[in-house]
Design goal:
By secondary structure, the protein is mostly beta strands. The chain is built from two helices and 17 strands.
Length: 265
């Protein structure tokens, strides 16, 4: 991935994590524009052996002419579970690493978080193209049993056999209380499955949070991070072209925040 702006950085491969500014990512705050720090990571977290992560897995995030390109090819590597990895770009503070971005704030601060995405996805094996959003009771620090992972699967070719708790015109909503695994404690997991996989979508993230209220009240939760990328299992090839992702964060009172990828190239 090639970050264009104040700090040009590049990541191709799965060994390093990169941070930087992009002229395609802007925050509008009280009529002033800012460029937030974003990160990109190739993360084969579910592969058991480090050697397999390098030998049997190849991940790429890079800029093309008119899109951001995600690619991952993995053979029969030994994994700790069904998911072998997740390659993504990130807005906010990832819970897995030291502070890597800015604080996105409490859910209760926002009136709307409108998101628009345009993409192309193809895959053999099992994968998805998805947002991975972490909501935590604490602003910083490790996960607790009260914390929440909320995923929005934009495109996918597999599903998990877990309980369906709701549905609307755009999403099928699933929920499970996950058991401890590796370095993760027990935590809540919501998945919103896009029913109309047409390569373009817009939705309000606050509305999705509201749909979780029947099981958990999210009022006092922090939006820790918003990631977007490909999740994949073993014996899988996946390629995704991200043409744009537009974020519009609107606070309840004081001001409006605009975060936009007008074009990714």
């Amino acid at each position: 991935m090639n970050f264009i702006g104040v700090n040009p950085l590049k990541i191709e491969g799965y060994k390093d994590e990169s941070y930087g500014y992009s002229r395609f990512v802007n925050i509008k705050l009280k009529n002033k524009k800012y460029r937030p720090v974003i990160s990109a990571v190739i993360n084969p977290w579910g592969i058991k052996k480090q050697l397999d992560a390098y030998k049997n897995n190849k991940g790429i995030i890079k800029d093309e002419k008119n899109h951001l390109f995600f690619s991952n090819e993995i053979t029969n590597a030994k994994t700790n579970g069904f998911i072998a990895g997740y390659n993504s770009i990130n807005l906010g503070n990832r819970i897995w690493t030291p502070k890597s971005g800015f604080n996105l704030g409490l859910i209760s601060e926002f009136k709307k978080i409108n998101i628009k995405v345009k993409w192309e996805y193809e895959s053999t094996g099992a994968s998805n193209f998805a947002f991975d959003i972490w909501l935590t009771k604490n602003k910083d620090g490790p996960l607790s049993e009260e914390d929440i992972e909320l995923m929005v699967w934009l495109d996918y070719n597999f599903d998990f056999p877990i309980k369906t708790v709701g549905e609307d015109d755009k999403f099928l909503i699933k929920y499970i209380k996950k058991k401890p695994m590796l370095y993760l404690p027990t935590y809540h997991w919501f998945t919103f499955l896009n029913k109309n996989k047409t390569g373009i979508i817009d939705f309000d993230l606050i509305e999705l949070f509201e749909k979780c209220k029947g099981l958990i009240n999210l009022k006092d939760y922090h939006i820790r991070s918003i990631e977007l990328g490909n999740e994949y299992s073993k014996n899988t090839k996946v390629k995704t072209k991200l043409f744009k992702v537009d974020f519009n964060f609107i606070k309840k009172q004081e001001f409006k925040i605009n975060i936009k990828h007008k074009r990714l190239s």
